[in-house]
Amino acid sequence: MKNLFIFLCVISVCLSLTSCAREVDGGFPNRVYFPKGGGEKSFTGEMHISHIEIGDGDTLGMYSEVQEDGSVVVEYEWLTVKSPHRGSTEIQFIAEPNLGKNRRKLYVAVNRSRPEYAGIVIIQE
User: Fold this and answer.
1) What is the DSSP string of 36-105?
2) What tens digit of pLDDT does each residue of 79-91 get?
3) Contacts of 10 (CB under 8 A, 6+ apart)
4) Which of 6, 30, 53, 74 could form a disulfide with 60 if both were Cys (CB 3.0 to 4.6 A apart)?
5) First vs last Cα of the chain: how many Å apart?
């Protein structure tokens, strides 16, 4: 019985920690639009970037890695997102050309594992 009580306490603490995250703008735009031909767009926000995630909406698909030069980079499908170094407030989006007929969309989360994270929707015609 004591083990069950401890197990339930651990589970409730874990659930409460994961439900505390809330989305903020972080000084970045909520949506970034790209033309069919792709391109690059850079923004400076207020949030210091430690990691970046990209996904398709059902689940976040890829997590950033810190490169040898200290930059934070993640690639997923047709989108690359970079920050010049951990702790920077700068973020760059690079979209490949859309060769298909349909508009496409990906979701970017900056610092999702922290209590506050910036969510950005990337849309390409």
Assistant:
1) TT-EEEEEE-SSPPS-EEEE-SSSEEEE-EE-TTS-EEEEETTEEEEESSTT--EEEEEE----SSS-EE
2) 999 999 999 999 9
3) none
4) 53
5) 58
